[in-house]
Amino acid sequence: MAQPAAGSAVTAGAVLQLVRQKDELEARIRACYELLRDSGVGPDEPLVDAEGFPRADIDVYRVRAARHSIACLQNDHKALMKQVEEALHQLHAREKEKQAKDQAEALAEALSQSQGQGQGLPQPQAFARVNAVTPESPASISGLQVDDEIVEFGSVNVHNFQNLQNIATVVQHSEGRPLSVTVIRNGKKVHLGLTPKRWAGKGLLGCNIIPLQR
User: What is the pLDDT of residues 54-63, one digit of tens each?
Assistant: First the structure.
C-alpha cells in the first residue's frame, strides 16, 4: 500500500491517490462478499456439518479464502482511512498556516507603507540579528534566514527594544497567531508572516536571535 514518505509534505495529489486506493479496497471487499453470497454462505456461518465434516454443499476452500481476504482487506482499509484522515488534517493545517502567513505579510507591508509616507523619513533601524534557523521550524517556514536584521518583530522595534525578553514576551502571547516581522536582508526590507507555534523542536520559533551592538 503506497503512502507518503515519512516527513514529506502531503500534497493534494497524494490525498487523491489514497482515496483511489480506498475505492479499490472497497471494491475488492464487495467482490469477496458477493462471492460468499453466491456461495450461499455468510461471513460467520460454520463450514462443517453437524457431524464435524466439511460441508458438501459449498466450496469450503473458496469460502475460507474469501473470508480471509475480507479480514485482511478490512484491516488495510482501516489503516488507509487513518492515512486519509491524517493527510487531510495536514493539508488543512498547512492551508491555515499559509493564510495566516499571507495576512501577516500583508499587515507588515501595510504598516511599512504607512510609516514610509512623507519625505525625509529615516530608514528604520535594526535592533537584532538572526544567527541560526532550524529547518522545518516555524521560523524557517516563514522565510526567516540567517543574518536577517530585525527591524520590527510584532510590536517590538528599535525604539522600545530593551533586551531579548521583549521578543520572548511577544512570542509567548502570540502562540498560534501570525506576527508581522520586518527584516533587512542584503540591504533591502523584507516583510514576513511568522506564526509562533509548537513543533518537533524546542521553543515556538526554531531560530536564534541576538541583539545588535551599535
Answer: 888 888 888 8
